[in-house]
Amino acid sequence: MTFEQLEHAIRAACGVTDDSEVIVFGSQAILGGHPAAHRDLRQSIEADIAPKNKPNRVDDIDGALGELSMFHSTHGFYVHGVSIEAATLPEHWQQRMVKVSTPGTNGKIGWCIEGHDLAASKLVAFRDKDREFVRVLLREGYVKPAELIARVRTLTVDDKLRERILRWIDITARELRE
Fold it and tell me: 74 Cβ partners below 8 Å, 6+ apart?
C-alpha cells in the first residue's frame, strides 16, 4: 500500500460511515508517521480501519470497501472494517496517534496508531508475519528497542506473554546490532 492509497482508504471509510474521522490500526498505520516507509512494510493490500465517532458503523466499511468488494477489484486494495477493541494496545495510545489530514483525505482525518504502539500490538499476536514486520521496523529505525520495551510493559496481557515479547525484542535488537 502507498500513502496515496491510505489517503483514499481514509476518505472512502469516512464516506461509507458518515464519519469525519477514522482510526487506522493495522500494519499500514505506519504510513501515518512514515509516508515513504520501507517497501517491506508496505506489502499489505489491506488497511484495518475503525470509525472513530461512529463505531457502530464498522460493518459498513467491510460491506462497501472490504475484500472482494467492487472497491477492492477497482483499486487493488481494500479496507477491513474492524472494531478498535480487536487490537491490544499500550496504555495511552490515543494520545500518541498520528494525524493524517491532507488534500488527499479531502477534509477527513485518519488517526494512525503510532509506530511503537503498532509494534507492541503486532507482538501480542506474535505471528511470524507480525514478528517480521516489527523486525523491519527495528532494522529501519522507525522503532527504538527501549521505547518498544516501555510500551510492551504497559500492555494488558498475561505475564508469560509479556516476558516472551520482551525476550524476543531483546534478542532481535541484539541480532540487528551485530
Answer: none
Asked if 18 and 56 count as a contact pair (C-beta separation under 8 A), the reply is no
Whole-model pTM: value is 0.96
Cell 493490500 found at: 45
Closest CA to 14 of 49, 48, 66: 49
Report d(CA 178, CA 163) in Å as an integer. Answer: 23
Taking only the tens place, the pLDDT of each residue in 51-67 is 999 999 999 999 999 99
SS3 state of residue 140: coil
- Give the C-alpha separation, 159 to 165, whole Å: 10
Q: What is the 3-state secondary structure (H, E, C) of 36-98?
A: CCCHHHCCCCEEEEEECCCHHHHHHHHHHHCCCCHHHHHHCCEEEECCHHHCCCCCCHHHHCE
As a residue count, the chain comes to 178
Q: What angle do CA 9, 15, 16 make, to 5 degrees?
A: 95
Residue 66 contacts residue 78 (beta carbons within 8 Å): yes
